[in-house]
Amino acid sequence: MIPVRRIIGRVTVIENIAVGAKIRDARRLLKLYGRGRWRKVKALATVELADGQIRLAEIHYYEAHGVGRKDVKVKRFLDQP
């Protein structure tokens, strides 16, 4: 997993992967962050990595209304370094 320091700009091309009980980590999310309608999401975003690089990447994360975006992961880069 590649550490993301922060997401720069807008998150685009948002697509739900799983919702509610279909999420494998639903129990962990409930325990760590509380109740909510949890969704696992795939999207595109410009991210700043821990080493300072700025790259366009496909990201996956969990989010719930009232809780926000949690556990952002870079799945692959869409640009050349």
Your description of this structure?
There is one protein chain. Strands 1-2-3-4 form a four-stranded antiparallel beta sheet, with no helix packed on it. The protein has one helix spanning 26-33; strands spanning 4-19, 39-49, 54-64, 68-77. Helix content is 10%, strand content 59%. The protein has one domain (4-77). A hairpin with a 3-residue loop joins strand 3 (54-64) and strand 4. It is built from one helix and four strands. It is mainly β and 81 residues long.
Which class best fits the helix and strand makeup? mainly beta
- Calculate the terminal CA-CA distance, rounded to whole Å: 17 Å
Q: Count the helices. How many?
A: 1
Could you tell me the mean pLDDT? 92
The order of strands across the largest sheet is 1-2-3-4
Shape descriptor reads elongated
Helical residue percent band: under 10%
Oligomerization status of the protein chains: single chain
